[in-house]
Design brief:
The protein folds into two domains: about 5-225, Rossmann fold (3-Layer(aba) Sandwich); about 230-335, no CATH class. By secondary structure, it is an alpha/beta fold. The chain contains nine helices and twelve strands. It is globular, with a radius of gyration of 21 Å. The strands form two sheets. An eight-stranded mixed β-sheet has the order 6-7-8-3-9-10-12-11, sandwiched between helices. Strands 2-1-4-5 form a four-stranded antiparallel β-sheet, covered by helices on one side. It binds adenosine-5'-diphosphate (ADP) and magnesium ion. The site of magnesium ion has 4 residues, from helix 1.
């Protein structure tokens, strides 16, 4: 077998607006614009960006819960748009999701054991003995005692419920897990435990992860690569370490500067990110970030910058920091930091 497990090509999703139903020119919500990436088996890709930038829409497109306006999703080289019903069912079996709020995504009337074995029982009948053995095994995998199988979600802590959500996602031995804001509702200490659990599971089971978070600081230690999104587009796609060591896109730099610094002795950079995220209905022309960008030049308000490869392999969409020349852009030529704003 060769080629990536998952390949996303120029994926675009526009939603119609309510106002558009009555007008001739239909305004659309540009939720996802021209997004491309690949994921190999066992890899982690983190997708980060402020709320509303299109992260969950990408997850829905990958699951084919919504159809793309343009572009395609290839799984092992096959376009999921062409999958027949049973093939789609098989794909959804290989791709599982973990959500932010396990309480609302778990049936409150079922016990933990029933919740985590239900996905398997949708495909095959289990005897009581098999069901209990499976539940015990899955609970152990996520660091919980098998006795918990008799509990209801309401009798569990937030961290335990999230472990339960992960156990349920593992039940069908997926190739890919999409974790959409999976730790965002948890206390920082519990967050770290769940992140460690996810990383351990990935190493043991070779699962590919798509880890979605609005909080860049959460992904620092878990990702192979990070895709930073702004208003539906990827603006920087980089190996994780390189991104945190030296962000190139001014938006990435601003996000890192604005993130809380866990070590109080480390100086906190001035946060240069001001203003609101513009509306995806009528996004700014050119680079959508230009109205908030301290480096913006005239061209930024005219042309959409393409994602350009840098010498270290990352991709950056910025006329100033990564001008398209046909040659990989040189990191060494970057200025040390953004000028302070405000
Ligand atoms: P994120 O997960 O990054 O917060 P989403 O993918 O949920 O962002 O949303 C991206 C944009 O698309 C937002 O402006 C959101 O309001 C809009 N959107 C998402 N789903 C729908 C939908 N079903 N109908 C209309 N607009 C939607
Ligand atoms: Mg979301």
């Amino acid at each position: 077998m060769s080629g990536p497990l998952l390949k996303v090509e120029n994926l675009t999703k526009h939603y119609p607006t309510a106002a558009g139903l009555l007008k001739k020119t239909v305004p659309v919500i540009r939720a996802v614009e021209d997004v491309s990436f690949t994921i190999e088996a066992g890899q982690t890709l983190c997708i980060v960006g402020e709320s509303g930038c299109g992260k969950s829409t990408i997850a829905r497109l990958l699951m084919r819960l919504v159809d793309p306006t343009a572009g395609r999703v290839l799984i092992d080289g096959t376009d999921i748009a062409g999958l027949k019903k049973h093939e789609l069912r098989a794909w959804r079996r290989r791709m599982q999701m973990v959500f932010q709020d396990p309480f609302s995504s778990l049936n409150p009337r079922l016990t933990a054991g029933q919740i985590i074995t239900e996905p398997v029982e949708n495909f095959e009948r289990l005897t009581r003995k098999q069901r209990e053995a499976l539940a015990a095994d899955l609970l152990r995998k996520v660091g919980m005692s098998p006795e918990m199988m008799h509990r209801l979600p309401s009798e569990m802590s937030g961290g335990q419920r999230q472990r339960l959500g992960i156990a349920r996602a593992l039940a069908l031995e997926p190739a890919v897990i999409i974790a959409d804001e999976a730790v965002s509702a948890l206390d920082v200490s519990v967050q770290a435990q769940i992140l460690n659990l996810l990383m351990d599971l990935q190493q043991q089971m070779g699962i590919a992860f798509i880890f979605i978070s609005h909080d860049l600081s959460v992904v620092e230690h878990i990702g192979d690569r990070v895709a930073v999104m702004y208003l539906g587009r990827i603006v920087e796609l980089s190996p994780c370490e390189a991104l945190f060591a030296k962000p190139v896109h001014p938006y990435t730099e601003a996000l890192i500067a604005a993130a809380p610094v866990p070590d109080p002795t480390r100086a906190r950079l001035q946060a240069p990110l001001e203003g609101e995220v513009p509306s995806p209905i009528d996004p700014p022309r050119g680079c959508a970030f230009h109205p908030r960008c301290p480096l913006a030049v005239e061209r930024c308000s005219v042309d959409v910058p393409p994602l350009v490869p840098m010498a270290d392999g990352r991709l950056v969409a910025c006329h100033v920091r990564a001008p398209a020349t046909g040659e990989p852009a040189q990191l060494a030529l970057l200025p040390e930091s953004l000028p302070a704003v405000g």
